[in-house]
C-alpha cells in the first residue's frame, strides 16, 4: 500500500532531490517539474518517486537513478522510481526558480 508522505518528510525528500540535475539541461529535477508525486510503499518500506523525463526516449535514466541514490543517501533507506509518461512533461511544469536557472544557463524561457 502506497501512502502520502508527512509534510516534513515530503519537504526533506524534495530538498534532497534538488541535488539531482538533469544531465542535459543542468537544472534540478524538482525545479524542472519532473517529479509528479512522492509516496511511501509501506509493504516494502521504500520511497516511491513518480517522475517523468523531458522526453520518453531519454537515454540518461541510469544517470538520474544514480544521482537520486546519492542524493537520498541518509534521507531514506530505499526508493523506487516509477517512470510516468502521462501527462507528458511540458515547460509549464518548470518552477519560477527553475526558469531563473535556465535563463542563467542561456535558455530563452
Automatic annotation (TrEMBL):
Under the heading Gene3D superfamilies, the entry gives: Fe-S cluster assembly (FSCA)
Q: Which Pfam families match?
A: FeS_assembly_P
Organism annotation: Agromyces albus
Q: What is this protein called?
A: Metal-sulfur cluster assembly factor
Name all MIP18 family-like domain ranges: 11-76
Write the lineage as a comma-separated list.
Bacteria, Bacillati, Actinomycetota, Actinomycetes, Micrococcales
What is the superkingdom listed in this entry's lineage?
Bacteria
Checking InterPro entries in the record gives: Fe-S_Maturation_MIP18 (IPR052339), FSCA_dom_sf (IPR034904), MIP18-like (IPR002744)
Amino acid at each position: 500500500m502506497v501512502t502520502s508522505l508527512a509534510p516534513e518528510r515530503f519537504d526533506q525528500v524534495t530538498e534532497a532531490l534538488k541535488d539531482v540535475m538533469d544531465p542535459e539541461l543542468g537544472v534540478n529535477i524538482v525545479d524542472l517539474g519532473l517529479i509528479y508525486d512522492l509516496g511511501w510503499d509501506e509493504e516494502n518500506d521504500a520511497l516511491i518517486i513518480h517522475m517523468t523525463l523531458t522526453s520518453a526516449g531519454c537515454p540518461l535514466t541510469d544517470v538520474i537513478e544514480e544521482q537520486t541514490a546519492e542524493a537520498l543517501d541518509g534521507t531514506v533507506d530505499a526508493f523506487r522510481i516509477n517512470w510516468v509518461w502521462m501527462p507528458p512533461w511540458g515547460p509549464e511544469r518548470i518552477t519560477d526558480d527553475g526558469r531563473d536557472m535556465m535563463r542563467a544557463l542561456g535558455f530563452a524561457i
